[in-house]
Specification:
alpha+beta, 2 strands, globular
Length: 61
């Protein structure tokens, strides 16, 4: 799965959840590996597209 496609899937899943979620929850929602989702979420955080309101939980920025 390409980077841009993965980012979109992650962001869409996070918006659908409507609450801060863990990478493992998003991984289940989109059918991806937790490790990959976690890596992408950290990159999205660096880009300012997601934020972490509490440890290990993320939501769209």
């Amino acid at each position: 799965m390409g980077g841009a496609v993965m980012e979109k899937k992650i962001l869409d899943a996070m918006k659908k959840a409507g609450k801060p979620v863990r990478p493992s929850e998003v991984a289940k929602m989109i059918g991806a590996e937790t490790v990959a989702v976690s890596k992408f979420m950290k990159e999205l955080k660096k880009k300012g597209k997601v934020r972490s309101p509490k440890a290990c939980f993320y939501e769209p920025a």
